[in-house]
Amino acid sequence: MEKILLVFIGGGLGAMCRYFFTTALAGKLENFPLGTFAVNIFGSLLMGLVLGLLLRGSSENFRLFAAVGFLGGFTTFSSFSAETFNLIRSGEIFLSLANIVASVAAGIFAVAAGFFFAS
After folding, report:
1. What DSSP state is assigned to residue 29?
2. How far is it, in rounded angstroms, from Cα 20 to Cα 61?
3. Predicted local distance difference test score (pLDDT) of residue 29
């Protein structure tokens, strides 16, 4: 139960931070989603920091709160970036490129499909 609570609290805080961050940056660049872009890049930086701290021996509770909860609520792009980075680190260059292309293309297709079915 404690683990679920850590993810729940972290996720709620991450989602609130995402809302405030994107709201503060909304409309700053015409026709460009600056808030989402900034959240994705900042979240990826934070994920790198969390991964580095985990290598230094941070606890499982820290991982659940910070990486799964907070960053999961803040941006899932950070998880995508970290997983792709880990593929690159392990020498899986083709798989990392396939992950990038397939995730972006499939995500755009899925949005278009959902939009089509809903309208």
Report:
1. S
2. 26
3. 82
